[in-house]
Amino acid sequence: MSNKKQIGYCLVLWLAILPLCGLAEEVLSLGEISSNLLGPVGLLANVGYKIFYVLGAGFILGSGLRYRAHRINPNEVRFGEVLFLLVLGVLLVLLPFIMNLSQGASILQDQ
Fold this sequence. Notes:
mainly alpha, about 85% helix, about 0% strand
């Protein structure tokens, strides 16, 4: 490796670490650390809810398409597959609602 590349890599590494030095001076308690982690976890939960909605809608749509294929040729597609896709899609759509209800109940009990 040439000397210029080594200097370039060291410069990039130094510029990447430099902003972290200012953050390292701040001392956080465990409570502050946990409250800082709640924001990203909440965003991740919201993304998960949206993924559940999209997957559930996809499974429901897929069950409709498989039912149409079952109506054309019952030997090709079993009705159990159609029923399974429909039940799985409904559960995936309802899962965020159930999770929100359980979170609301735990908040109400704490008061």
